[in-house]
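Lecture 7 notes: from sequence to structure.

We start with a single chain of 179 residues. Read the sequence below before looking at the structure.
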Amino acid sequence: MHANQIMGRLRRIFRNPTNIQVFIGIILLSCLLAVTIGPSIYKRAETGIEEVYKQKNSREFSGDIEVEVWLYSWVRTGVINMIHARGPAQWRAADWSKGCFSRRFTDWNAIYQTAIQEACADIAEVQKTFDSSCLTIEKCDIPPEALSELELILDRLHAVFSQANFVLPYESDEQNTIE
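Now the structure, written as tokens:
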């Protein structure tokens, strides 16, 4: 084939291409674009995705700390309500036997989750053991050993969360109790 014949054929193809020729042309053009600008698009997308994951992980980390601290405060308030209970509604305000957990158990929050789980299990045991001491409003005398056990549970929980500076010391007028 001579150059004139090739040029004549290409002119005919470009003037009136068949569907297969259009399809092959689009495929070739796509491959050419993928080879020339594809790597830069891929690198840019990869760094963008990494940045999104970094931001997401930092938000989840701080969010989980808030969840742990919230759980600590919730457990603490529930135990203080039990200590100052004047009736069965305050003594049984929470069902501690079902436990209390945050969204997920991870490596960094394992110590806090374990402390919360143990505290909930211990509180459930105290609640079950001394439940007969608070059956009615007229007869709700929580024994001193129950109160001391609850205080001990609070102290252990406070010690774990205080090591990470998650909690500030409470003043006596800041106690959240039902009265």
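Residues 119 and 153 are 6 Å apart (CA to CA). Keep this in mind for problem set 3.
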